[in-house]
Design brief:
65% helix; 124 residues; 6 helices; mainly alpha
Length: 124
């Protein structure tokens, strides 16, 4: 799944996805990205101080933008973020047991759903 892959598989997958991150595609997402950022800034304003900037902003924002790109259902986003955070947690030597398998199973389900009902996202 790209993050853990080495060349040449990583290179092949990266080239396949590069166009999806082109300026036009991201420009179309700008209103949604701005809304996600505004929601998190508003939530941070209401949090007890000091606010954990990484946990409250730096980690969830990229994950939620990726959810938008992929067409991840709103109801699935908390689990998507949990799996993404677990996979990237360098403090856990071998990651969280089963999280890679969970991620792969979810992505297979998401691709199947998008094939059945294509949308205007990366997988649709």
């Amino acid at each position: 799944m790209l993050i853990g892959d080495d060349p040449p598989e990583h290179t092949r997958l990266r080239k396949m996805l590069t166009g999806e991150f082109a300026v036009r595609r991201i420009e179309r997402l700008r209103p949604r990205i701005e809304a996600i950022v505004a929601e998190h800034l508003d939530a941070m304003a209401d949090m007890p101080k000091p606010v954990d900037l990484v946990g409250a902003f730096a980690l969830p924002i990229p994950s939620l933008v990726i959810c938008e790109l992929l067409g991840v259902l709103y109801a699935d986003r908390a689990d998507f973020q949990r799996r993404a955070s677990s996979r990237l947690d360098l403090s856990v030597r071998d990651g969280q047991p089963g999280v890679v398998e969970e991620s792969m199973a979810y992505m297979a389900e998401l691709v199947a759903r998008q094939r059945a009902e294509p949308g205007d996202d990366l997988l649709g």
